[in-house]
């Protein structure tokens, strides 16, 4: 399956607990961290929920 590179560009501080948990579930531990994930519908949905905190890198 295809992969997606995502980078956390904003902090989870002062965000709702649900968004913090979504960042953790994606695997982010600190700012400016880049991860590579498989493009499953679940991962794409999680990225959509925190789209204001992360960016997709091509």
Keywords:
single chain; Ribosomal Protein L30, Chain: A; three-stranded antiparallel β-sheet; globular; alpha+beta; 2 helices; 58 residues
Helix and strand arrangement:
Elements: E1 3-8, H1 17-26, E2 34-38, H2 41-49, E3 54-57
Antiparallel strand pairs: 1-2, 1-3
Helix pairs in contact: 1-2
Give a description of the structure:
This protein is of the alpha+beta class and 58 residues long. The protein has a single domain (3-57), classed as Ribosomal Protein L30, Chain: A, CATH 3.30.1390. Helix content is 33%, strand content 26%. It has two helices and three strands. The chain has a three-stranded antiparallel sheet, with no helix packed on it. Helix 1 packs across helix 2 (41-49). The longest helix has 10 residues, at 17-26. It is globular and about 35 Å long.
In CATH, the homologous superfamily goes by the name Ribosomal protein L30/L7
Mean pLDDT: 97
| Major beta-sheet overview | 3 strands, antiparallel
DSSP helix fraction: 25-40%
CATH fold description: Ribosomal Protein L30, Chain: A
Shape call:
globular
Give me the Rg, rounded. Answer: 10 Å
Element-by-element helix/strand order: EHEHE
Q: Please name the CATH architecture.
A: 2-Layer Sandwich
Say how many strands there are: 3
Number of helices: 2
Number of domains: 1
CATH level 1 class label: Alpha Beta
């Amino acid at each position: 399956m295809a992969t997606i590179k995502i980078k956390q560009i904003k902090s989870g501080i002062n965000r709702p607990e649900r968004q913090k948990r979504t960042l953790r579930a994606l695997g982010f531990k600190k700012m400016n961290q880049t991860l590579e994930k498989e493009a499953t519908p679940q991962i794409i949905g999680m990225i959509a929920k925190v789209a204001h905190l992360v960016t997709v890198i091509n």
